[in-house]
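Example 9 (inverse folding). The structure is encoded as follows.
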């Protein structure tokens, strides 16, 4: 008969109950709800952090490695956002500290900011 050390864990049997937090986390991940909530929060934060002159013609994309892709409808908005970049990033960090946004990158998208 072998003895188990204190560092070894007994594998969880399939009949053992799971904690409700773990179940909800798995369910939300499968349903994509956490990503949907995150993108809605990011869109709301963008409307608050972006300069008023570009709010209607821009929209946030995804955050990868701390860089937020922002889609704008005109190249003039790319330049304008460049002037406000540091202030926008600072404001987004205040609103969404868990997003770890360190920079923004602007990309042209003719329909940016338009709602269907």
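The amino acid assigned to each position is listed next.
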């Amino acid at each position: 008969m072998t003895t188990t050390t204190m560092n070894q864990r007994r594998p969880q049997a399939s009949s053992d109950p799971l904690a409700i937090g773990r179940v909800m986390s798995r369910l939300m991940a499968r349903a994509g709800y956490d990503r949907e909530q995150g993108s809605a929060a990011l869109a709301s934060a963008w409307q608050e952090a972006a300069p008023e002159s570009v709010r209607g013609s821009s929209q946030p994309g995804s955050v990868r490695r701390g860089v937020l892709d922002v889609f704008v409808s005109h190249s003039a908005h790319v330049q304008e956002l460049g002037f406000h970049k540091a202030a926008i990033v600072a404001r987004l960090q205040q609103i969404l500290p868990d997003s770890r946004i360190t920079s923004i990158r602007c990309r042209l998208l003719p329909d940016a900011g338009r709602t269907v």
